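User:
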Amino acid sequence: MTTVREIRLKSRPSGLPTAENFELASVDLPAPGEGEVQVKNLWMTVDPYMRGRMNDAKSYVPPFQLGKALEGGAVGEVVASGDAGFKPGDLVQSNLGWREGFNAPAAQVQKLDTRGLPPQAFLGAAGMPGLTAYAGLLRVAALKDGDVVFVSGAAGAVGSMVVQIAKAKGHTVVGSAGGPDKVAFLKAIGCDHVIDYKAEKDLTAALLRAAPDGIDVYFDNVGGEHLEAALTAARPFGRFAMCGAISMYNATEPPPGPRNLFLVVGKQLKLEGFIVSTHWDMLADFHRDLAQWVKDGKVTWKETVFEGIEKAPDAFRGLFSGENLGKMLVKLG
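Assistant: Predicted structure:
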């Protein structure tokens, strides 16, 4: 019998989650049964979308259940196997994060070929956030030659990949992030114009200074004032990839809508929301292109790492105060 710890949802948050919304519990794992594997998690991810699953509301994924372990991407190592397709030592991916280990049917884990990359990269740049950037920019926003690209949340896991993919394809990129460290990071990865939104009194004016002729593509991770600024700066027939709106996730009252939404009509803009799971068919192309970009020195990434399962709630909450530079991860093993 192996004892592991996991983080459960104790209560549903109102506004920004607090430590009281989570509880740390211990679970005893027996030897895996036939067709099962036992996995020791090495890394887990925390992502903004998880905030929506903490609400008891219908969405594109079911809500987390009270008193049950949360879920999310994880990379782990098989320590025991009752399935012929897996052996101890195999690296695997799963959606069974927020716990130090687990037993599960073999069909719930996937073998991980790291292709020479660190395993945790497949929770970030080479995983869901990277594919989100790739699909959102190339398919949803339909990036075209000569496009000027604006990215909000540009120093985060998704945003920083959007910046680098656009630059790898030869585009002018404007990125917005908060604070000098994030500004320096964006400049280091080639972002042409960086806006420190925390230092600007008028975000729209700052964007128009950075892109005086306007923008063609907006990759939205933030919503709110950033969306308003992008609507004002957009050129006719601009395309918006609506990926997230982290500025609104903890709102306790409905936030005001964009005051200039009417510009969508006159400028004939296209605003399209998307979920990365709709675009898994692009994964092979993404990994092929990513490997070449990494080889050519065009793509890199940053990680912010908390250590220990007990720190997972702190890592998650840190997403909403901008504590992460690049991908927020929790190291478990």
